[in-house]
Design goal:
Chain A is mainly alpha-helical. Helix content of chain A is 56%, strand content 9%. The termini of chain A are close together. The relative contact order of chain A is 0.25. The chains are: A mainly alpha, B mainly alpha.
C-alpha cells in the first residue's frame, strides 16, 4: 500500500502509548494496531478526525504517500 | 438466530451422517473390487442405469379406478419430463411419438469384468460424492465458527459447481456405455435402448447456478475483508 500511517513518530513526539491513544480516540487497540502496522485498507473520516484531535496534528502529518518502488 | 443455529446443526449433522454412509459404501465397494478376481460370484445381479425410448402404442397405461369415474384411458398418456406440447388428435396419422425414459435394468451375470467395471465406476462416483460432502462440511464448519466469508469457501463452492458439471458429464458417459451394452444384449417389446449420451442440461444449469453463487460469495468475501480492514 503506497499510503502509510506515520503513527509511530507522532506517538513518540507526543509521549503517548498506543493503548492511551486507543482509549482517547475510542477505537479498539486491535484496530489501532492494524492502522499502525499499515495493514488497514481504508480509514474513516471520523477516525481521522479523532486521531488529529488527540494528536493535535493535520491529516497530512499522519499520512504519507510513497511510490510502490520504495 | 437461534433457529438458524438449529438449522445449521441439523444440516451439519445430515452431512456428517451422509459422509459416514458414503464412506462405508466406498470401503465396501473397494473391498469388492479387491476380492472379486479371487472369489466365485454365484447369483450375481447387476443394476445399470439406462435411458430408453418407450412406444406408448405398445406399453399402455390404464387407470386402476373403476369405469365411470374420472380418468379414463383416453386422458392418460406417457410423457417425458419438462415441457410438452400436445397437438389435437389427428386420426389420419396414427403415428405415436416415442417417450424417452430414464431408469435402470437389473440382470443376472457371470461376467467378472462387467462386475469389476461397474464396481470401479461406483467407487469413482462414491469418491466424488465423498469429496463434495467434505467440501460442504468444511463450508459448514466455517459457518458454525461464525467466519463463513473466507476466500477458501468461495473456492470450495466453485469446486462443488465443477463437481456437479463433471459428475453429470460422467453420468452421461456411463449411461451411454450402459445403453450401448443394453442395446446389444437385451430386447424388449415396446422399448428401445438408444446408444446416445443422455446429457441433462438441467444438471449443468444447476452447476452454473452454483458457479455464479461461488463468484458472488467471492465478491462478498472481498467486501467483508475490506470492511474488517477499515478503521
Amino acid at each position: 500500500m503506497p499510503i502509510r500511517i506515520k503513527l509511530d513518530q507522532l506517538l513518540l513526539d507526543r509521549r503517548l502509548t498506543l493503548t492511551e491513544l486507543a482509549d482517547r480516540v475510542g477505537i479498539t487497540l486491535a484496530n489501532l494496531s492494524v492502522l499502525k502496522t499499515n495493514k488497514a485498507r481504508a480509514i474513516r473520516f471520523s477516525t481521522l478526525d479523532a486521531l488529529c484531535r488527540e494528536l493535535n496534528c493535520q491529516p497530512g502529518e499522519l499520512l504519507e504517500w510513497t511510490s510502490q518502488q520504495e | 438466530m437461534k433457529a438458524l443455529g438449529g438449522v445449521l446443526s441439523f444440516l451439519a449433522f445430515s452431512i456428517s451422517v451422509s459422509r459416514y454412509f458414503v464412506a462405508v459404501g466406498l470401503i465396501v465397494t473397494v473391498c469388492l473390487v479387491v476380492i472379486a478376481p479371487f472369489v466365485a460370484l454365484p447369483g450375481l445381479r447387476l443394476t445399470i442405469p439406462v435411458s430408453f425410448s418407450v412406444d406408448p402404442g405398445i406399453i399402455r397405461v390404464t387407470p386402476s379406478a373403476p369405469a365411470g369415474e374420472p380418468g379414463t384411458s383416453q386422458n392418460i398418456r406417457l410423457g417425458s419430463e419438462g415441457f410438452a406440447f400436445e397437438v389435437g388428435q389427428d386420426t389420419t396419422r396414427a403415428r405415436t411419438p416415442q417417450v424417452h425414459v430414464r431408469g435402470s435394468i437389473r440382470f443376472p451375470t457371470q461376467s467378472r469384468g462387467l462386475f469389476l467395471g461397474a464396481a470401479v465406476l461406483l467407487a469413482a462416483l462414491l469418491s466424488l460424492v465423498l469429496w463434495v460432502l467434505g467440501q460442504l462440511r468444511a463450508v459448514f464448519q466455517t459457518l458454525r465458527e461464525g467466519q463463513p466469508f473466507v476466500a477458501a469457501n468461495a473456492t470450495r463452492i466453485r469446486r462443488i459447481a465443477y463437481a456437479v458439471i463433471v459428475g453429470e458429464a460422467g453420468r452421461a458417459a456411463i449411461v451411454f456405455v450402459t445403453n450401448d451394452y443394453a442395446s446389444r444384449h437385451f430386447v424388449a417389446e415396446g422399448l428401445r435402448f438408444d446408444a446416445r449420451p443422455d446429457f441433462s442440461i438441467m444438471a449443468v444449469f444447476y452447476g452454473l447456478i452454483i458457479l455464479v453463487i461461488a463468484e458472488v460469495f467471492r465478491a462478498g468475501t472481498r467486501l467483508d475483508e475490506e470492511q474488517s480492514l477499515t478503521v
